[in-house]
Amino acid sequence: MCRKYVLASKLEKLESRFNVRINQQTLPISESFAVACTDSSYVITSENPHEIQVYQFGMTPYWAKKPMNLINARAEGDKNMDDDPNYNGPNSIFLKSAFKKPIQSQRCLIIADAYYTWSSDKKPYLVYLQGKERPFAFAGVFDRWKNPDSGELLTAFAILTTTANDMLLEIGVKRMPVILSRSNEAKWIRSEQPLSYYLKRLFPFPTDMMNAYPVSEQVNSPEVNTRSMLNPIGEKLQSEEKPTVIQRSSHYHKVKPQRDTPWFENRNKS
Predict the structure, then answer these.
(1) How many angstroms separate the CA atoms of 168 and 151, rounded?
(2) How many CA atoms lie within 13 A of 245 on its CB side?
(3) Which helix (DSSP H) or strand (DSSP E) does residue 114 occupy?
(4) Would you tell me how many other CB atoms lie within 10 Å of the CB of residue 34?
């Protein structure tokens, strides 16, 4: 599952990365190192694919009598309840009453820079994409709920989840958010396609394109939201050593190992 994530990139970078502009009626939000349930965050929807909008994390279905604050939606629905990583059955999220309508017509990209997960021994880890690939997008759905008491209209989203990849399984994590490749982002919020078109994009992100490292348990505190939450307290789960070619002359070169700097070390850049 995905309980908290990071969104610290500047708005200008988000607009450039996703080729969108913020909705003119929307007030920009501050960077967050721990977006959690009921917080506001940036999304791009199938209804307005050229705009960034601000919705709440934690969806309540339109038919609910009271707030439900659903932060995650299982791609498999009620299938694969034991989270078998080798599951190859259908993604049946459309059978769940809370997500039947949203998965068909109310999909969104949920913008993030990284996210937190917890190992089987309840230690927090920061998970990110290698190659300084940030921001990226989770697959999400949204809905609008009218509070029957106050009449207030709330638009909120949930992050779709799937089975964990091999890297996360090593630390006992069974589920992960659906992270969309760049080629699938526009397809996810494209309208008027058969449902199967969207369901087949709900799969684990490749292990060799991700990494993670342990972080302080201050992540568990709802009162803490500071950059220090990103600081590693242990080794990364995977090596990021990559070769670079050093040109000696027109007839000679050799390969020298060079560490690929994880994104969190570029603290002065968005």
Answers:
(1) 42
(2) 6
(3) strand 114-118
(4) 22
67 within 8 A of 49, measured Cβ to Cβ: no
Q: How far apart are CA 69 and CA 19, in angstroms?
A: 30
Helix ranges restricted to H, the chain: 11-18, 100-105, 166-169, 182-188, 195-199
Give the rounded distance of the alpha carbon of 35 from its chain centre.
Answer: 11
Nearby residues of 247 by Cβ (< 8 Å), 6 or more positions away = 253
Strand segments, DSSP code E, in 203-249 are 210-214, 241-249
Q: Of 198, 219, 211, which Cα lies nearest the Cα of 242?
A: 211
Walk along the chain (270 residues) in steps of 10 and give the mean pLDDT of each run: 95 96 89 97 96 97 96 97 95 97 97 98 97 96 96 97 98 98 95 93 96 97 95 95 47 38 43
Query: 0.70 exceeded by the pTM?
Result: yes
If one counts every other C-beta atom within 10 angstroms of the C-beta of residue 72, the result is: 17
Token digits of residue 200: 């087949």
Cα separation, 104 vs 138, in Å, equals 17
Is residue 203 within 8 Å of residue 254, measured between CB atoms?
Answer: no
Burial of 39 per CB tally in 10 Å (0-12, 13-18, 19+): middle
